[in-house]
Amino acid sequence: MMDGMSPYLRAHAAYHRDGGPWIPWVDALDFHLQHGVVISTPECFIMARRVVAAWPDHHHLTLCAVTEEDAADGWHVWSAAGSLDALLEIARRHPSREITFQRRDERLHRVGVERLMDHAR
Fold first, then answer.
1. Residue 15 CB partners (closer than 8 Å, separation 6+)
2. CA dihedral 13, 16, 22, 24 (to 10 degrees)
3. How far is Cα 111 from Cα 70, in angstroms, rounded to an integer?
4. Which residues pair with 79 in a beta bridge?
5. Domain residues of the chain, as ranges?
6. Does residue 3 sit in helix, strand or coil?
7. In this predicted model, what pLDDT tens digit does every residue of 10-51 receive, in sequence order?
């Protein structure tokens, strides 16, 4: 483990790195436990939810937009930390067309899963 911190604690620290986030950590965590997925292992931590890839960016970036599982073709990663190999293994087990994420105060990033897997090889 890097710096003796678990991936969960690294994700939590990164979430708060630049001050208080616009959505408190416990609210985001609770939301993803109810409407998404939270995986925490000694190798990695991820908090994500299913989304529709064609949604406008702001739907990916809010906790108000929820979709039915059969309509979803992507994942929005709210927070992640740890081994990239472990995170990619999770992505392989939960297939989708696209993964989106946002770094603090940046635009939404969209990555095709095939492209991501190709770079991992």
1. 21, 25, 28, 79
2. 50
3. 21
4. 47
5. 2-120
6. helix
7. 999 998 887 767 889 999 999 999 999 999 999 999 999 999
